[in-house]
Write the structure tokens for this entry.
Amino acid sequence: MRELHVTLLQAASMGPILSLGHTTPDGTRLYKSEIPQFGLGVFLANGSDCKQAVLWALEEGYRHIDTARAYDNEKEVGEAIRESGINRSEIFVTSKLRRFHAVGHEETVRRCAESLENLGLEYMDLFLVHAPPKDPYHRKPTWQGMEECLETGMVRAIGVSNYGAHHLDHMRSYAEYLPSVNQFEIHPWLQRPGLRAATEAIGAIPEAYSPLARGKKIDDSRLAQIAKKIGATPAQVAIKWCIDQGCITIPKSTNKNRIGENLASLDIDLTTVISEISSLEENFVSGWDPTAEP
């Protein structure tokens, strides 16, 4: 059972807190930290829309914001954090190394520094490799650069995104610190028990992006029937299912009402409908999926 912590951060985030750590080859857990299980994703949120969405989310009680260099909105995320007036130590910030920047040790460290400059922050709470480097030769030195970012305090945790089970297994041959997180697409129509298990096997937590299947399944009549039974919205059911699987979950929205509605999903009880949600599985990939690449 994954360890949960009740802290002052939990009260602020209005949601559960999970323990992060990095497993070493001898099984030791190092660089331990904590992450709010629920957060705001800002993929495709641009300019002032991104900044406003982050401000609304922080006002609602969110304390985890997930961005990426590829989203071109790190600057706006940083501005919102500063303007919110909330102590930096209370906000968990994730960003990611662009795939075509993942070409070696020095480049990785340099790009991490650039993301920090864009954000206007002294450190990131979590830094992810956005996808397995296209050239397998670059995977080891890129991860070594990530480890340097961790050791020097530029970031407090490192992880990966869109890594398949075979990518994770190969990391055992070169990682001094295995990833703390693997972020990939997870939702009721793409449940991925095998990849979730492989992620947990290396001591990492699965993180669900696109928990609403990029909106492509939100009108599923089966989901609507399930939601009606428990007095929730379809989006709340999909989000809470991810949470209940133990996944860090980061739904994206720039709509103030939906930002609040998504947060309220934490209070939904799926006990009576869990088997019906499980039956929605159809291996539906809504977007980009490098997990199956060599």
Summary: The first helix runs from residue 8 to 13. The chain is about 35% helix and 15% strand. The CA atoms of residues 210 and 261 lie 16 Å apart. Confidence is low (pLDDT under 50) at residues 1-13.
